[in-house]
Amino acid sequence: MIQRAMVVDKVGTSGAEQNSIVRVDADPTAMVFKKSARSVVHAWICGECGYVELYAHSPAELYQAFTAAKSTLPDLS
User: I want to staple 65 with a disulfide (CB 3.0 to 4.6 A). Which of 18, 37, 58, 60 is the partner?
Assistant: First the structure.
């Protein structure tokens, strides 16, 4: 499981809608160049209760960034 992924909403400068993305930083302790991996996400939503699941289009890239960052993050167990 990839922990601490961030969902990033963007609206273009023209006000046009854009896809939501998730971001995982390979170097989260860096001040500037965090070597971020990003992926567009899409949602599955239950039409009865509203439960939502998000799915990343590029999970392998996110996982690579996550494993690179593991050495700098505190243990989440």
Answer: 37
